[in-house]
């Protein structure tokens, strides 16, 4: 059992000092994931990678209000990717509401990047399409979250989801096509 998995288990059991032990072990990896995601945002992004990591970490282990349970390190990082996605989407919604922009901008997806990060509406369109995909195929949606929001490779995401890399590649191709179609229909 890795140190991270052991500490996650301690957090689940209610050990108040466990959360303090976890951050030093996962901070560098979370910071790298956040930096990759922030780099995909437009220049002048007000949210910094450090702030994204801290906010995601607080949502994951800092609140204490709701019970968290992680099976392993991969599950924790999947949860971290989801937390980062939600934070970025909330940030995009705030920006969109401030601008008063009502229309969503359509854009084709490519292999490397799902949105260019040039417009908060692009992220909101992706979030809406991703929510729809989760209703159709939860594994495909999880794979996209890990790839896009956490910056994992197909192989890393496959390991995190407990699927083979070959299945992950097929699912990635399917998910990209599905999301392209869904975003075009918005």
Task: Describe it.
The protein has 186 residues and is an all-alpha fold. It has one domain. 70% of the residues lie in helices and 0% in strands. It contains 8 helices and no strands. It has helices at residues 3-12, 18-39, 49-62, 73-99, 120-136, 138-149, 154-161, 165-185. Helix 3 (49-62) crosses helix 4 (73-99). The longest helix has 27 residues, at 73-99. It is globular and about 50 Å long. The termini are far apart. The model is unreliable at 104-118 (pLDDT under 50).
What is the total tally of β strands?
A: 0
Structural class category = mainly alpha
H-E string: HHHHHHHH
Q: Per the principal axes of the C-alpha atoms, what is the gross shape? A: globular
Give the key terms.
186 residues; mainly alpha; 70% helix; globular
In short:
The protein has 186 residues and is mainly alpha-helical. It has one domain (3-185). The chain is built from 8 helices and no strands.
Would you spell out the secondary-structure blueprint of this structure?
Layout (H helix, E strand, L loop, with lengths): L2 H10 L5 H22 L9 H14 L10 H27 L20 H17 L1 H12 L4 H8 L3 H21 L1
Helix pairs in contact: 1-2, 2-3, 3-4, 4-5, 4-6, 4-7, 5-6, 5-8, 6-7, 6-8, 7-8
